[in-house]
Structure formats: structure tokens, C-alpha cells
């Protein structure tokens, strides 16, 4: 039976706006995520239209990776990481997104991060855009709704490829691009929220705006992929999706057909475009029913065809159930709607834990695309307890990860071509959905709290040594 490849990319994943801090240092401009207030479990974070200096927002300081990167990467190396997924903060490189020349200080910071990875033999895996469109582009263009943003992104992506591709082989064009199919994605991913001042769960549902924005992201992604392929043949370009598989709540054919339709537009639509290079057959009917008209320019179809990705990546946290009965619909997860599955337990945040769903998803994705896959986010958000001696006993996290790795192993034995695994928030960081520090994912605990206190010191959780062993045995000893 097949096992994990010898060169399997074990590692961890992060995002600039959730862990770097230093939100206005060295020429960095504000991004959409800098314009969100702190939130909590019960009080969702809000998008503001002015930065209030006294608004406590952990991501302005986050865990200050900006000044701790050497220490943090050394800890990743100690765990044996083969890869480290991080994103570049667009506004460190182009503070408003519209400059003609990049900010050298910003480029230097990522030179340092990359060089530090290379020093330890860690392969950098870079997300070009992870929930941080420059806020100036939101104000001027209503974010990705306007076609002008494509040029801004392409200029930015080319800058990264020109500067870093001598040391970086793997790039992802957009984090969780399919979040744009859902209202909350309009904020973080698309930035189509000009003039709005709202809580994250109150974003108006405007599919026309979101799908037009997505079209522009598809074009931008394809142009970046094409540029990489033409100029840097060793570079591999990937897409990145939320994959939250759905099960019919019952075997009632209405539930089954409804699940299929929901899967198409939520889980498959974006990757069908990015992997296959064209809009899928089912899109027309969906657009018609929703009254959506996508404005395309001559040449767009060609651009999509010529910019297909080399590998498919996804985040996997949960599965959901679908029912055709509107009374059964309920909101769960950070940006995903779904119905509880009576066979599954959920995290403290209501995310349904479903390791077997990962094996199922890997098989579904691979049978559709037949290109290498990578799980670039997975993990358990939990309220960890730091003991007086600095230890954190997170056996629940170990259980969660073990069960998911077991199922990845099954999928590999099934024949799926899986390249790597980077659990989310390998070091504690700020939650994307709530804006809290309290929801932790890491192998490394960071003393930083939602009230702004904490000395930012790092300590190893029990899961640290466990994951080190997993990597050392290439996933054999779990
Ligand atoms: C994904 C995002 C990440 C991350 C993760 C966990 O949707 O790509 O940025 O934060 O979810 O979500 P949360 O932070 O809301 O727990």
C-alpha cells in the first residue's frame, strides 16, 4: 500500500495579518484586516471605516512575528518542518496597492524570513494574498468589484515572483478564494465593502458584486500563474479553497440533489475555474437563477485557459449537512452555513470534527482534478490553559490532528497524490473570524491575550513534541 511520499511536505501555516503585527511599521499601509475591530465569541468583530487608535485589535500587534521571526522559525525547525506556509502582506510591498514601485523595506522583511527558512532547509510556501487587500483599494474601487484591481494585484504578484522565486518554489494566488461565494468573504477576501460599517455577520448578501469580484480574482490569478510559468519554470502555482464537504441530511432525493448543487457552487466552482481554466457547465443556470450577470472582457476566456494552477490546496476544518427543508438550515462555522451532523462532535466554536470527511474530500477532489493536492490548513481552535510551569497539555489537539493524519494516510493508500500537510496556526495567532487570541491552534503557545496583556513569550505545548515525532517518522508514528 502506498505511504506518504519521502519528500512529503510536513509543516505549518500562518497568515501575515493574523500574526505579524507591526501593522504600520516600515512604510506598511493599512489593509482591510487592519480596519477590523477586536471581536469575541459573542461579539463579532466589526469592519470600521476609520482606524481608531484606541480600538484594541490584536492583529495590529498580533504575536509580533515581525520581530520574532528568527525565534519562531527556529522552533519550526526544531519540530522538523519541511515547509512553512506564510503570506506576504500586500500593503508592506505596495502600501496603497497603487504605487508604481514597491516598498523596499517590506521586500527586505520577507527576504529575511525566506532566508531564515532556507537556512534550516524549510521550503517556503507563500500565499500571495490572504485576507488583506489594501484598504486604499477598498475606498477607491470597492475592492475586487472593480477591474482596475487586477492590474494592482498582477504588479504585486510579479514583484514577489521576480524577487523571491530564486528561493521559493510554491506560491498560492489567493487564500480560500471560494470564501467570496459567501457574504462574509465580501469583506476579508474581496474587500467589496466600501462605506460599510458593520459586524462581520451582518454583511449584506450581494451575489452580483461578489461573483463579479471573483471573476476579477480569477483573471488576476491566471495572469500571475501565466507570468510564473513563462518566467520561472521551476515555480509551482497553486489555488487555495475552503473545502467543507456537505452530506445530505437524509436520503430524501431533495436533500441529495440540493447537496450536489450546494457543493457545486460552494466547494467546486472556484477550483473548476482555476484548475480547468473555464467556468463550469452548471454556473450559467446558477447565475440566471440569482440574476447575476458577469461582465467579461474579450480575451478573458483565453486568460483563464492559459493560467491554470499546478496543484490544488485547501483548508479542511469541518463537514456540514445539507437539508432542502429551509426550517432546518442553521448558521455554523466561521463563514460556512450548515446543519449539525448527529454523528459528529463539534469544537467549542461549533465546527464539526470529521476526520473521515477529510479522506472522503481528498478522494473527491483528486478524482475530479488528478493533480497533486495539499492540505494547507487543518486544526482545532481551542481555549488552551497555560500551566504555571509553562506547559500546555493539549491532548485534545493531538487527538484531532492524529485522527486527521490517519485519514490522510488512508487517502494516500487509496491512491491520492498528496504533497503535504500544514496545520493551521502552527504558532498561536489571531482568529480570522472572531479577531480573538483566545481561539488557539498552535503547537507553540504565545503569551498574548485579548485585553492586550501578555509578554509575547513562546512556550511548547505537548503537541509540539508529538508533531516532531510525526514528522520524524514521516507520519508512521502517530
Ligand atoms: C481559515 C482562514 C485562516 C484561519 C482559519 C481558522 O478560514 O484561512 O485565516 O484563521 O480559517 O479560522 P478562525 O481563525 O476563524 O478560527
Automatic annotation (TrEMBL):
<protein>
    <submittedName>
        <fullName>6-phospho-beta-glucosidase</fullName>
    </submittedName>
</protein>
<keyword id="KW-0378">Hydrolase</keyword>
<dbReference type="Pfam" id="PF00232">
    <property type="entry name" value="Glyco_hydro_1"/>
</dbReference>
<dbReference type="GO" id="GO:0008422">
    <property type="term" value="F:beta-glucosidase activity"/>
</dbReference>
<dbReference type="InterPro" id="IPR033132">
    <property type="entry name" value="GH_1_N_CS"/>
</dbReference>
<dbReference type="InterPro" id="IPR017853">
    <property type="entry name" value="GH"/>
</dbReference>
<dbReference type="InterPro" id="IPR001360">
    <property type="entry name" value="Glyco_hydro_1"/>
</dbReference>
<dbReference type="GO" id="GO:0016052">
    <property type="term" value="P:carbohydrate catabolic process"/>
</dbReference>
<dbReference type="GO" id="GO:0005829">
    <property type="term" value="C:cytosol"/>
</dbReference>
<comment type="similarity">
    <text>Belongs to the glycosyl hydrolase 1 family.</text>
</comment>
<keyword id="KW-0326">Glycosidase</keyword>
Amino acid at each position: 500500500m502506498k505511504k506518504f511520499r519521502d519528500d512529503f511536505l510536513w509543516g505549518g501555516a500562518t497568515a501575515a495579518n493574523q500574526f505579524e503585527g507591526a501593522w504600520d511599521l516600515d512604510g506598511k499601509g493599512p489593509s482591510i484586516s487592519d480596519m477590523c475591530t477586536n471581536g469575541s465569541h459573542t461579539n463579532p468583530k466589526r469592519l470600521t471605516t476609520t482606524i481608531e487608535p484606541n480600538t484594541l485589535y490584536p492583529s495590529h500587534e498580533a504575536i509580533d512575528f515581525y520581530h520574532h521571526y528568527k525565534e519562531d522559525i527556529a522552533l519550526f525547525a526544531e519540530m522538523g518542518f519541511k515547509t512553512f506556509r506564510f503570506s506576504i502582506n500586500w500593503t508592506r510591498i505596495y502600501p496603497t496597492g497603487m504605487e508604481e514601485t514597491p516598498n523596499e523595506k517590506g521586500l527586505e522583511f520577507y527576504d529575511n524570513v525566506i532566508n531564515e527558512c532556507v537556512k534550516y532547509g524549510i521550503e517556503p510556501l507563500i500565499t500571495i494574498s490572504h485576507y488583506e487587500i489594501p484598504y486604499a483599494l477598498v475606498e477607491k474601487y470597492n475592492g475586487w468589484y472593480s477591474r482596475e484591481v487586477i492590474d494592482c494585484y498582477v504588479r504585486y504578484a510579479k514583484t514577489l515572483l521576480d524577487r523571491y522565486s530564486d528561493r521559493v518554489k510554491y506560491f498560492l494566488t489567493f487564500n480560500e478564494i471560494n470564501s467570496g461565494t459567501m457574504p462574509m468573504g465580501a469583506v476579508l477576501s474581496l474587500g467589496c465593502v466600501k462605506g460599510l460599517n458593520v459586524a462581520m455577520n451582518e454583511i449584506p448578501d450581494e451575489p452580483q458584486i461578489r461573483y463579479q469580484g471573483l471573476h476579477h480574482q480569477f483573471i488576476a490569478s491566471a495572469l500571475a500563474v501565466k507570468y510564473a510559468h513563462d518566467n520561472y519554470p521551476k515555480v509551482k502555482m497553486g489555488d487555495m479553497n475552503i473545502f467543507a464537504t456537505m452530506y445530505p441530511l437524509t436520503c430524501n432525493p431533495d436533500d441529495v440533489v440540493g447537496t450536489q448543487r450546494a457543493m457545486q457552487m460552494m466547494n467546486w466552482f472556484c477550483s473548476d475555474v482555476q484548475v480547468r481554466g473555464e467556468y463550469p457547465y452548471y454556473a450559467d443556470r446558477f447565475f440566471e437563477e440569482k440574476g447575476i450577470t458577469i461582465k467579461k472582457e474579450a480575451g478573458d476566456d483565453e486568460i483563464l485557459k492559459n493560467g491554470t494552477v499546478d496543484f490544488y490546496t485547501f483548508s479542511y476544518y469541518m463537514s456540514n449537512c445539507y437539508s432542502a427543508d429551509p426550517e432546518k438550515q442553521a448558521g455554523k462555522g466561521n463563514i460556512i452555513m450548515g446543519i449539525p451532523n448527529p454523528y459528529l462532535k463539534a469544537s467549542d466554536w461549533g465546527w464539526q470534527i470529521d476526520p473521515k470527511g477529510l479522506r472522503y474530500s481528498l478522494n473527491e477532489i483528486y478524482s475530479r482534478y488528478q493533480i497533486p493536492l495539499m492540505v494547507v490548513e487543518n486544526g482545532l481552535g481551542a481555549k488552551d490553559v497555560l500551566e504555571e510551569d509553562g506547559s500546555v497539555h493539549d491532548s485534545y489537539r493531538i487527538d484531532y490532528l492524529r485522527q486527521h493524519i490517519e485519514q490522510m494516510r488512508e487517502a494516500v493508500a487509496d491512491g491520492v497524490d498528496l504533497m503535504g500537510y500544514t496545520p493551521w496556526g502552527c504558532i498561536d495567532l489571531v482568529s480570522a473570524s472572531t479577531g480573538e487570541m483566545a481561539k488557539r491552534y498552535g503547537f507553540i503557545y504565545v503569551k498574548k491575550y485579548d485585553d492586550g496583556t501578555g509578554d509575547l513569550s513562546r512556550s511548547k505545548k505537548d503537541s509540539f513534541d508529538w508533531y516532531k515525532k510525526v514528522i520524524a517518522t514521516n507520519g508512521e508514528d502517530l
